[in-house]
Amino acid sequence: MEEDTFYRVPTKKEVEKLENAKPGDAVSFEDTDAPHFEPRWLAPDETPFEARLFDTREYALHMISNTADKNILGKYIQMQSSDGKEYVTNNFKDGIRIKCNLDFPFPETDLPEGILFRSEMMEEKWNIYKYEGQIYIVRSWTGELKYVTDYEKTEDGFLIKEIAMDKEVFKEDMISFYVNEVHFLLISHVMGYLIPHPLPYDLEDDPDSILKFSFSEFGNRGYFGYFSPK
Prior knowledge:
Distance between the termini: 45 Å
Order of helices and strands: HEEHHEEEEEEEHEHE
Mean pLDDT: 88
Low-confidence stretches: 1-9
Radius of gyration: 19 Å
Strand content: 15-25%
């Protein structure tokens, strides 16, 4: 029986380790300085957010992403050089539009046109672009366009009042999750702040399920999770 071969794109830090290694050196890609954490529910007084959150830092800090599918690897590499302009013509005109009122209180920030965030390693699961007053949120491994939002600059920061997505994947009882996910991605990936990430309300409440979902969805940016209401 032929064994599966797994592929991954090395990070810049890993490439530097390989380049600096001498013949015969054992090279470890694990970040030995990263602390370890027990995956469990934390009480509000155990987190800086004063909320009950599941600690997913063990996977975010130590898990490595790879794939056995060469096509996915090829798409990921292709997406690393994309400026996202290919998504401008796809505004989900026939999709579902979710009304919301996401307020981003960053008075000095006016998001520029172009690449807002682009994955540099396989542990980063999203690419985010802005063109012509719209934000495009894309899966970094597959190039799947997940969300398109509006963008309104205000004196106090910026607002998002509408989120569009594919009607084929839309689930009405997941609206809260979609809105919270967009908020999380912009705050954590674009603005660079650490905040808790949403979990689907119907995800099993056990460590294995939560850890796997969090890492698959948010990679190395998913430190703390909470269940998004139905």
